[in-house]
User: What shape does this take?
Amino acid sequence: MARSRRRCSPRLSRRSRVFIYVTIFCILLCAIFTGAFLIAGLVRSNLGKIIDKAAAGGNGLALLGHAYNVDLPSRQVQISWLILGCGTFASTVGTYDSQNCGRLNTAVDFYFDGAQSSSFSYDPDTSLLHRNDTNGLFYVQATVEVQTEHLLEVTAWYGQDQQYAYPFDTYVLDTYFQALDPATNTSLPTLFVRIADATNNLQPQLGRIGNAQIHTNKPIVDNSTATAGFGVQYLFHRTVLSQLFVVVLFVVNWLLTAVVVYIAVSAYEGLPLSEGVLFLPVSVILTIPALRALWVGAPDFGLLLDSCGTFVQMVIVSLASIYLVVNVGLRRPQAAKDAAAGAHAQHDSEKEAGVPLLPDYN
Assistant: This one.
């Protein structure tokens, strides 16, 4: 009875088991990558802790920025700055769950990057809105937000454009601003300037200089003795996910190239190959530029990865394809014709020599 039960129990084939194992591995791999990037994003986006850590319990104003557009060909970046007040400069706290910073309680004029006129004037009285039904606060972010446009540093990477190092290119943003009290034309203390999140697959990071208290030699407005300001330097790198994605596609293209080279070497060694093999090099020639087009935010052709990747890969695959077409596609039909002619000549010679032929029953 035990043997009959064992025979009746279904057993998965080896192919089914391999398929199940591969499926489980892919699901686990996706879960690991998704979880890792989500955890990293949650840690990075805890703005309340970032604000409180940067403010360090001080009193003054602060700017929290979002770089919503980075135009690399034009070397420009557009940033939306959220105006904050910390300590005694905060009328309310709790912005992004911050324990020390919130809405700025004093009027201020902002001058960015040496502007001679005010880039933005903030008035807490006009930006403080109340609901008619409950008299509670009605928050509109645009009333405490200023948008600016800045120029990225124009530098070279070993004599090449910065984008030549894609996806490991780096761009530098230097900017400063001065905050004046419009009533007295005196400067207001600034605690920090931060860019909060990534955009256009570019991750901002404080540069080597970081934040710095600065001053100018000339007053920016008449009857002003205030020359103090606040400067900041930021570096923009490609996000880790985009770098990983590009490198994986780069390796895949080289693996496809290696397969075509292996087939060409096998044909050179005289291994039998079918005519169907000729379709693989042609498909690889079309696949390499298609995968290159999937690179996240990639500039036009002419990068470092093109010189040591796409260009070389296309040349190798094209030469291997030509060899395979000549060796497999053209020589094989000629060899078949030669074999048929040889068999026909042998048949005629045997017939002339009087060798009895096998009867043909067809």
About this structure: The chain has two domains: 46-238, 242-348. The mean pLDDT is 82. The CA atoms of residues 107 and 302 lie 50 Å apart.
